[in-house]
Design goal:
Blueprint: E1 15-19, H1 24-29, H2 40-47, E2 67-71, H3 85-102, E3 106-110, H4 112-119, E4 127-133, E5 136-141, H5 153-171
């Protein structure tokens, strides 16, 4: 068994969804978000990122929709609270190189823990962040884990839909004064 989960990456993705670290079941299966109670696939579908709900076994399909998957810390654990704070700081240089290399337009952290660990901030808000990462807009979303009962499925969809709408707005052509009708 590998204790890492392969990334789903391509150059120039619209959104790179970043988990904290892989769960043990995901690492064993070799697929992202395989836990029965994990709501990731359902959430991104209902939020508009995919036209149908992708099964974890078909996780590579996400690339067809301009989205990718990675984890900040590569080591799989039964739960994210088994990670030491130092693991985030050790993972930061490689993670930031990955963002610069693949150049997604948006980097979406699934939960506050990973972004807090990387940014060394004490507090962050949900949603769009002020700082860019490797040129990408940073967004912090609620973790879709079934263990995260602070957010209902409707809450998750609402938060992820805000990111989806931001990606659509970013694709709109800008209208400068020269292109406006007189």
């Amino acid at each position: 068994m590998s204790d890492e989960l392969p990334d789903m990456l391509a150059f120039g993705l619209e959104v790179l969804f970043c988990g904290i670290n892989p769960g043990l079941s995901a690492a064993v299966a070799g697929h992202h978000f395989v836990g029965r109670s994990n709501r990731f696939w359902r959430t991104i579908h209902l939020a508009g990122f995919t036209p149908e709900e992708i099964s974890p076994q078909e996780d590579r399909t996400i690339l067809e929709y301009g989205c990718g998957l990675t984890s900040v810390v590569r080591r799989a654990t039964a739960s994210a609270d088994q990670l030491a704070p130092k693991e985030f700081s050790l993972a930061a240089p490689a993670f930031e190189r990955k963002i610069k290399r693949y150049a997604p337009r948006f980097v979406a952290f699934l939960g506050k823990a990973a972004y807090l660990g990387l940014s060394a901030q004490r507090e962050i808000a949900w949603g769009r962040q002020a700082n860019l990462m490797g040129g990408a807009t940073v967004w912090v979303l609620p973790n879709p884990s079934g263990r995260n009962r602070a957010f209902s499925l409707d809450d998750l969809v609402k938060a992820y839909r805000q990111l989806y709408l931001a990606t659509r707005m970013a694709k709109q052509p800008s209208h400068d004064a020269a292109s406006l009708p007189s």
